[in-house]
Structure formats: C-alpha cells, structure tokens
C-alpha cells in the first residue's frame, strides 16, 4: 500500500490563481480530510468527507472547495489564491474518522506559497 | 469539546524515558485521548490512544489518571529520532454523526539530546 499520497510536494502561485491539490489513498478508507498548518501552529481542519459524495466544512473552509466523487480521491481546490493561504496542507484518511478508536493516516504534505 | 493543555517544550536525554504530560480536565466520558507526533514538518504520525485504561504498544505507553483529567505519554527509551512535536488530542464528534475530527493544539516540542 502506498498509503496517503499528495501532489504536488511544492507549489508557488500568484495571487488570484486557482489550483487543485491532489490527495489519494489506497486503503479503502471512508473518511478523508484536509488540514492546513501555518508556521509554528498546529493543524487546522479545512474540509472533510465521510464517504463518496459527502463533504462538510471544518474550522477554516473559506477560500477552499472539495468534492469526493470516488472513495480513493479527495482533491482540494483553491478558487482564487491569496497570500493568507500560504501554508502546508496535509491530507488524512481513516476507516471511520475516529469512531471507536479509529486512527488517521496523514500524507506527506504540500507546501504552498502564494505571492 | 475537551481542550487539552501541554507544556510547550521538554528536553530528554537519549536512552532515558520521556514523560510527556497532558491536561484534559473537561474531557467527557466518551472522548478518547489520542497522541500523535510530527517530525520536522512531516505528516503527523499516530502513536497511541486510550479511553479509560492504560495502554501500551510498540511505540509508547499511555497512562490516564483515574478521573481522566490528565494523561502521560511515555517513550520508554527515547532516541534522537524521537525529537518531534507531540500532540495530545481529545477526540470529539462532529455535528450530526459519530465521526471524530482531530483538533490540534500547539503540542509539546520534545528535544532528545545525546
């Protein structure tokens, strides 16, 4: 199993540009989520999905869109990039999102800089 | 949602036990205590979790007080590779369902020194 994979590893955008961060998992996990981590801070939840076709907002959803058309993939879209979105983005997945003591697996992260 | 409190930093000598405390005085009866760590900006890595009883796995031990208001993560023989930020998290349920989203604080930066 490759686990949770994220592409690209690094990205530089100009203000106003749009892009999609890719996340995929090969563990047949129902639950997937996106976090962002700013320097010196903990991770903050952006969006999450409890299964294909179902998504919901986390703590900091503004400026981001998600969709979940398959179990394996959970892309994160930046509609119009802003310097405040400069951050490291982590994708995570788990069997059932923590129910009954489930654990989450994290990808290696995408480092995004918006100029 | 239970909030957790951790010291911002700790040092530990290589080969000694690292004891990382966490306070979660408002934790509810059905909330788990989870520990994750993050090594040098990599993705967080699961360590261990528990509800009421003490737990042990190949990485660490988790000691939860009887009143569940605090816990301690124990790395029995710390190595330089254990240098990381350690997060103590009380799992909460999201609206409308029983799934849980991890709420990360700033964690404890553990430095293992030779």
What is the topology?
The complex is a heterodimer of chains A (115) and B (114).
Chain A lengths: L3 E4 L2 E4 L5 E7 L5 E7 L5 E9 L2 E4 L6 E3 L9 E3 L8 E8 L10 E2 L3 E5 L1
Parallel strand pairs in A: 2-11
Antiparallel strand pairs in A: 1-3, 3-8, 4-5, 4-9, 5-6, 7-8, 9-10, 9-11
Chain B lengths: L8 E5 L4 E6 L9 E6 L6 E6 L4 E2 L4 E4 L5 E6 L8 E7 L1 E2 L6 E2 L6 E6 L1
Parallel strand pairs in B: 1-11
Antiparallel strand pairs in B: 2-7, 3-4, 3-8, 5-6, 6-7, 8-11, 9-10
The total count of strands of chain A amounts to 11
Structural class of chain B: mainly beta
Mean pLDDT of chain B: 89
Taken from the alpha-carbon principal axes, the silhouette of chain B is: globular
Percentage of residues in helical conformation of chain B = under 10%
- Which structural class should the secondary elements of chain A be placed in? mainly beta
Oligomerization status of the protein chains: heterodimer
Outline the structure in words:
The complex is a heterodimer of chains A (115) and B (114). Chain A is mainly β. Chain A has strands at 4-7, 10-13, 19-25, 31-37, 43-51, 54-57, 64-66, 76-78, 87-94, 105-106, 110-114. In chain A, strand 5 and strand 6 form a beta hairpin. Chain A is globular. The N and C termini of chain A lie far apart (36 Å). The relative contact order of chain A is 0.33. The mean pLDDT of chain A is 92. Chain B has a five-stranded mixed beta sheet with strand order 1-11-8-3-4, with no helix packed on it. In chain B, strand 9 and strand 10 form a beta hairpin. The radius of gyration of chain B is 14 Å and the shape is globular. The N and C termini of chain B lie far apart (39 Å). Mean pLDDT of chain B is 89; it is low at 94-98. Chain A binds chain B through residues 4, 31, 33, 35, 40-45, 48, 50, 56, 58, 88, 90, 92, 96-99, 101-109, and chain B through 32, 34, 41-46, 49, 51, 87, 91, 94, 97-107.
């Amino acid at each position: 199993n490759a686990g949770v994979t994220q592409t690209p590893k690094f990205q530089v955008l100009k203000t106003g540009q749009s892009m999609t961060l890719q996340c995929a998992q090969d563990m047949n996990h129902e639950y997937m989520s996106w976090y962002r981590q700013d320097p010196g801070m903990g991770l903050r939840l952006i969006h999450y999905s409890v299964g294909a076709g179902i998504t919901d907002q986390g703590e900091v959803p503004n400026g981001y869109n998600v969709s979940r058309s398959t179990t394996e993939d959970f892309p994160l879209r930046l509609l119009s990039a802003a310097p405040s979105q400069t951050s490291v983005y982590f994708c995570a997945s788990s069997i059932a999102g923590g129910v009954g003591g489930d654990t989450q697996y994290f990808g290696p992260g995408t480092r995004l800089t918006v100029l | 949602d239970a909030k957790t409190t951790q010291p911002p930093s700790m040092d530990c000598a290589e080969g000694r036990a690292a004891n990382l405390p966490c306070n979660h005085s408002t934790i509810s009866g059905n909330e788990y205590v989870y520990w994750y760590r993050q090594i040098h900006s990599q993705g967080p890595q699961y360590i261990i979790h528990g509800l009421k009883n003490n737990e042990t796995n190949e990485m660490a031990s988790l000691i939860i007080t009887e009143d569940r208001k605090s816990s301690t993560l124990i790395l029995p023989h710390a190595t330089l590779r254990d240098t990381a930020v350690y997060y103590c998290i009380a799992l909460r349920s999201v609206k409308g369902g029983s799934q849980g989203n991890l709420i990360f604080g700033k964690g404890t930066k553990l430095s293992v020194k030779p």
